[in-house]
Amino acid sequence: MQYPDESPWSEDKENCYGWLMQFADGNRIDLHVESIVYAKEYIQTDKLCKILLDKDGILPEIPEATDEDYWVKKPSLEQYLGVCNEFWWCLDNVAKGLWREEIPYVQDMLNFYVRKQLEKMLTWKIGILTDFSVSVGKSGKYMFKWLSAQEWNAYLETYPAGTADAIWIATEQMCRLFEDTAIWTGRQLGYVYDLKEGRNCQEFLQHVKALPKDAREIY
User: Which H or E element spans position 29?
Assistant: First the structure.
């Protein structure tokens, strides 16, 4: 069992409290209780909410449950270009870390920063394919439903083992998948993908990859 509302950042234990419970028979229940006043005020803040039983007629009428709040949102030009820039910029750190063989640092940089931009670009493609009417789930876990088998397998190949060689291969796969998806997505949205930025960063990656281990200068 876990008591998340006993954490220092819990804001209102008097009005809402939860227990996270894993039972020995395999069932999992996240039990959350609220005061009547709190429930009435906040019941409509999550469109996924569904009233199963209200025997005393306390709660207000609410719309039918929907995951609409979690649908992929169409990006603005600034958001699109920002994700492209973040993806390519953070790869410079991946190259640096790989040359130094700082594997934990590289894994963090790759998965917490670079991957998030690739995930966003793939979800935007899915949004275009579905008229921005679906949710891809937490961490993009349902992306396989709309990506082609080739794209999904390419994405899975971006998860590397814990060696520098494996991470280089996964990183190069990330670059190919991101650029292909970004170009397609940009065209569909009427945005211009910055080819020069992507190519310059990929050339830098390959240059660092080829540096000898006793190099004292990059160029």
Answer: strand 28-34
